[in-house]
Amino acid sequence: MVIRTQYLQELRKWKDEEVIKVVTGLRRCGKSTLLKQYRQMLIAEGISEAQIIYINFEELENEELTDYKKLYQYLKDNIDETKKSYIFLDEVQMVESYEKVVDSFYVKDYVDMYITGSNSYMLSGDLATLLTGRYIEIKMLPLSFREFCEITGMGTEEAFAEFMKVGGLPYLANMDRQDEKVNTYLEGIYNTVIINDIEERQMRRDNQDSKRKITDISLLKSISKYLASVIGSPVSIKGISDYLISSGRKISQNTVDDYVDALVETFIFYEATRIDIVGKELLKTNRKYYMVDLGIRGYILPKRQYDLGFTIENIVYFELLRRGYTVNIGKIGNFEVDFVARKNDTFIYMQVTADMTSKETFERELRPLKLIKDNYEKTVLTLDKFTVGNYEGIKVINVLNWLLEK
Hints:
Elements: H1 5-13, E1 20-24, H2 31-44, E2 52-56, H3 68-78, E3 85-90, H4 98-106, E4 111-117, H5 126-130, E5 135-139, H6 145-152, H7 156-166, H8 170-174, H9 179-205, H10 217-229, H11 237-246, H12 253-265, E6 269-276, E7 281-291, H13 294-300, H14 308-322, E8 326-332, E9 335-343, E10 346-353, H15 359-371, E11 377-382, E12 389-391, E13 394-398, H16 399-403
Parallel strand pairs: 1-4, 1-5, 2-3, 3-4, 6-8, 10-11, 11-13
Antiparallel strand pairs: 6-7, 8-9, 9-10, 12-13
């Protein structure tokens, strides 16, 4: 079992606080395992098993409890109001109107509530309305490169090559990673997200006439495949529409926009908007999309050589998110900075490249950073080991060393 220390510490920090703890993330990124590990932690700290109620709604034995009235009654019957009860509702979005149950027990001072879900839409509808200011979201991601190294025991460079190939889903790190077995596992997850999670999202939107419907799974997969092929490149909804039209599909930009939203809300893709570095204002044109798991990307794309620099950029983006940064793409004049990462009103400007050894690449990567006149940290991450150093206040760091930092 993979111990996800960072997320356990986050849950522990909020223990017994009067907020609902909501853990979100891609299917099979480790949410259920996290709740089980946290349950074990509570027991080790003296909480009795009778005080802990854990329900995984993906398990057939709990199918009856997907009726919110039966779920409410089950919880009511199994809670001892004289003691603190810890309720874990895993993949709770499978319960229609679960918001009513969560809200009902939230107001009880003898309940500490934890829920997980594989769709961010669960936090933009009724639950968000009911619980404004009364929940915290813990956004769970697949394994980091450092976690992958610790679990597999592989050497750094060998592990990085494997990490780029199979991705960071926890089960894969522990299994015999033969190509056929890896692809079969990734196929199952991808199809589950594309079909089940997006279907569930659709059901929750059916009562909103203003929302367009996800009805064409083939189109959804086409858009997913296109976004996977252009990670790290600025794209627009119009650009995606034009690509699909050139491929023989008649499609509106509004429809494409809604399908892209579905892929983002189910945590397959994350979007990074552009920001003007001088004025720190968000820009509406073009954004980048990054894929949450490189293994899934490798599964859905034809097997050919992809740009190593963009693959590394994808890994760095999610590592910045893990470290608590808000991440944007930077624009200064006519130049782009790969990442503007902000935490607590402090910024880091970051470029990512596979290799800095050629003079042209070296100058190209440093040029936009030199144009930034404030005194926040400026860094270039590179896979090569020869250009590491400090150049007029701009740090060049080997990306593997940076990824392994604790």
